[in-house]
Design goal:
Keywords: ATP-binding, Cell inner membrane, Cell membrane, Kinase, Membrane, Nucleotide-binding, Phosphoprotein, Transferase, Transmembrane, Transmembrane helix, Two-component regulatory system. Pfam families: HAMP, HATPase_c, HisKA. The protein is of the alpha+beta class and about 475 residues long. It has helices at about 5-60, 65-70, 95-105, 185-220, 235-280, 285-310, 325-340, 360-375, 435-445, 470-474, and strands at about 75-80, 115-120, 150-160, 165-175, 320-325, 345, 355, 380-390, 390-400, 445-450, 460-465. The strands form 3 sheets. It has a 5-stranded mixed sheet with strand order 6-8-9-11-10. Strands 1-4-3-2 form a 4-stranded antiparallel sheet. α1 runs antiparallel to α4 (about 185-220). The protein is rod-shaped, with a radius of gyration of 47 Å.
């Protein structure tokens, strides 16, 4: 049986296990205490009966002693009057029993006594371990022997001197104490565990509800979604945590806003000189020189835009929407057809719903598709596959180009990194396309990896998280 994975389930299981262990220890202590109490009561009763028997024997004619012993014996008690005592000395640990027997025999005066509590399997056994022969009770019915497993293995042996000098030797065995627990404590434990479980479940629900909301808000914030201030509810610690999250979110928004304004101003300052240079280049009379200047200025403008885009990251004001990834890829396929780019889509039949910024994620996919088209060899060699998992959706963009050496794969997402051997400046861009794509995907809670394709080529694998409700429906 798998253990619960939620904090509520684990805490509830731990408390119930602790309660069960405490109940088991309490039950064990109760059984031991009850056993000792029953044993003390049994020994006390045996001593009182022995003292009463001595009192009667001292006042009964000697020829009636045998009949008196037979009437007093039970299946667990053996009595005999003999010239010598069975015990030569007292056994250990029976001082309280000897004092009680002496007190019970105060009416007959002080007598010599010896007492020992022995194990029937030990060396001090004075009688065979089997019960005495069956006898008839006073009503003529056969006395029933107790089952062997119901008799305690220890026996109390007593040797008492009578008034006439003979010795009463007695071996008294006791019924084995009942170690079974009564039903009432078990029912009480079940009811207590149920009450504690219900109370703990409701209390933990009240405590963990704000924590679940906080976790969901942190996940949405990590994907770049707008998250309002959370209500501070629950225990003091949860309220403090929620307020700290709200303050962190406000600081983060201020930092992003300041960064966006700074980059906007920087972009304006960088574009203005390029625009002025472009106007002056248009005025150059030599056609070849003018063309080269305009190409260089266009490249510089592209580098500025790409650099600003990478520095700005994905912090835009675009709202997050629920989008079917299949429709997104079909739109990109249509765009590619207009540009003369051939693509082959492999899509599942069922919708694959994702929480995305459509325009932003479309830019990341365009970068990956352009990368595959530019270095993929044949014009129709770009293959796009969409797979829907339980928790994530995977988009693979594959080409049939030369691929990338394994040692270079980890650094391909670094800014301005290009492989000169196959991705030269004439055919390549600024070296920021993959970096921008990864930043966009990571801002959506996903990841992008590059793998060499079996048989030649490269695979850009893009993984995006699916909303909980979409994962369940899918």
């Amino acid at each position: 049986m798998p253990l619960p994975t939620s904090l509520r389930g684990q805490l509830l299981l731990a408390v119930l296990l602790a309660l069960a262990v405490a109940q088991a220890i309490s039950a064990a202590i109760t059984v031991v205490t009850r056993t000792e109490a029953v044993r003390a009561a049994q020994i006390g009763e045996a001593l009182d009966r022995t003292a009463a028997l001595i009192f009667v024997l001292d006042r009964t004619p000697r020829d009636l002693h045998a009949n008196l012993l037979r009437a007093t014996e039970t299946p667990l008690t053996q009595l005999a009057i003999e010239a010598r005592p069975t015990l030569d000395s007292d056994g250990p640990g029976l001082k309280r029993a000897r004092r009680r027997l002496a007190a019970a025999m105060s009416d007959v005066g002080e007598r010599t006594m010896r007492m020992a509590l022995t194990d029937i399997s030990g060396a001090q056994v004075i009688a065979p371990p089997q019960p005495p022969p069956q006898r008839l009770d006073r009503d003529g019915r056969m006395r029933r022997r107790p089952p062997p497993d119901s008799v305690d293995p220890r026996a109390l042996t007593i040797s008492l001197q009578l008034a006439d000098g003979d010795w009463l030797n007695a071996e008294i065995r006791f019924p084995r104490p009942d170690h079974s627990l009564p039903v009432l404590p078990l029912v009480s434990f079940i009811l207590a565990a149920a009450a504690i479980g219900v109370a703990l479940w409701l209390t933990l629900g009240r405590m963990l509800g704000p924590l679940r909301r906080l976790a969901g808000a942190a996940e949405r914030l990590g994907r770049g979604e707008e998250v309002g201030d959370l209500p501070a509810t629950g225990p003091f610690e949860m309220r403090a945590l929620t307020e700290a999250f709200n303050q962190m979110q406000q600081r983060l928004h201020r930092m992003v806003s300041d960064r966006t304004q700074m980059l906007a101003a920087l972009g304006h300052d960088l574009r203005s000189p390029l625009t002025a240079l472009r106007v002056r280049a248009e005025m150059v009379d030599d056609d070849e020189t003018r063309e080269r200047l305009l190409i260089s200025l266009a490249e510089m403008g592209e580098m500025v835009e790409q650099t600003l885009t990478y520095a700005r990251g994905v912090w835009t004001r675009e709202a997050v929407e629920s989008v079917d990834a299949r429709d997104l890829l079909r739109d990109l396929e249509d765009e590619g057809e207009h540009k003369g780019v051939g693509m082959r889509l492999v899509l599942p039949d069922a919708p694959v719903m994702l929480r995305l910024r459509p325009a932003t994620i479309r830019r990341a996919l365009r970068n990956l598709i352009d990368n595959a088209r530019r270095y993929g060899g044949a014009a129709d060699a770009v293959e796009i596959t969409l797979r829907a998992g339980a928790q994530t959706a995977t988009i693979e963009i594959a080409d049939r180009g030369p691929g990338i050496p394994e040692a270079e794969l980890p650094r391909m997402f670094d800014p301005f990194v290009r492989l000169e051997a196959s991705r030269s400046r004439e055919t390549g861009g600024t070296g920021l396309g993959l970096s921008i794509a990864r930043s966009i995907v990571q801002a959506h809670g996903g990841e992008v990896t590059l793998l060499n394709r079996p048989g030649g080529g490269l695979i850009a694998r893009l993984t995006l998280p699916r909303p909980v409700e979409a994962a369940v429906e899918g």
